[in-house]
Inverse folding.
């Protein structure tokens, strides 16, 4: 009951400080703009300063409140520490952290280099863990807060050519499950967001061939603005996880029960054949 009372403070974002990594584009950008519409003090962080500033300027107009852009490489812990310190001194204590920075490369495992694997693990998984760890300490001290980790439906339901990416997202899901238990008594919500394919430029970089998206019906692709609204509608509550589209919760459950049938169906859907790779 005490946790619920503390979390209620976050149901209305007016004047709340929201830090979003990966806020220059894609899901992070959509989450930033929606937070601004709800009156938050938005802080976006990413590597592209020009794009970041554009988002911050739009947030300023939408919220009528100061918005901030900090250039930050989430894979550099020293830089993360420095930026977090700047935010606390220039903006204030963080009320909501969203780990939305992400990287994906849609290739078969045998076709991926160690460097590519390492980069995905570092950006998608290790950076989210480190930022969560740093900000959780502050939120526990202030007695409330929310940490939102953007994982993926791929962390629950496997698809061909996404092994490393999906593994990082599965790691984010399990990390969030355990972090949630550790901080719940301090009034801190940990929310995991598992979207399916979202209509952003993500797949243009992850799969330049376009094969992955070509296999998906248009109705299955999620609008980033709708996803952002759903996320913010669940902040300040005891919601543990959001799977989008909602029916994918049942699909993930079914895969755990009958994985063999699931593998067959998924490979059939994506028209995947192992022998197309040169081993």
């Amino acid at each position: 009951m005490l946790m619920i009372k503390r979390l209620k403070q976050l149901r209305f974002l007016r004047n709340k400080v929201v830090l979003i990594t990966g806020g220059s584009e894609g899901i992070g950008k959509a989450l930033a703009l929606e937070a601004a519409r709800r009156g938050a003090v938005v802080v976006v962080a990413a590597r592209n300063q020009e794009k970041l500033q554009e988002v911050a300027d739009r947030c300023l107009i939408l919220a009528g409140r100061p918005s901030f852009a900090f250039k930050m490489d989430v894979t550099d812990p020293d830089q993360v520490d420095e930026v977090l310190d700047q935010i606390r001194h220039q903006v204030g204590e963080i009320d909501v952290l969203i780990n939305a920075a992400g990287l994906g490369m849609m290739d078969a495992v045998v076709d991926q280099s160690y460097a590519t694997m390492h980069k995905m693990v570092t950006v998608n998984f290790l950076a989210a863990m480190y930022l969560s760890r740093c900000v959780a300490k502050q939120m526990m001290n202030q007695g409330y807060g929310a940490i939102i980790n953007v994982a993926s439906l791929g962390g629950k339901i496997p698809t061909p050519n996404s092994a490393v990416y999906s593994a990082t997202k599965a790691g984010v899901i399990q990390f969030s499950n355990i972090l949630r238990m550790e901080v719940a008594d301090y009034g801190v919500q940990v929310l995991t967001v598992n979207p399916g394919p979202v209509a952003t430029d993500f797949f243009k970089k992850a799969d330049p061939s376009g094969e992955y998206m070509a296999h998906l019906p248009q109705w299955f692709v999620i609008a980033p603005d709708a996803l952002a609204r759903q996320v913010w509608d669940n902040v300040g509550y005891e919601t543990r996880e959001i799977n989008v589209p909602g029916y994918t919760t049942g699909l993930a459950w079914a895969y755990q029960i009958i994985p063999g049938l699931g593998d067959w169906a998924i490979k059939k859907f994506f028209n995947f054949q192992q022998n197309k790779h040169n081993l």
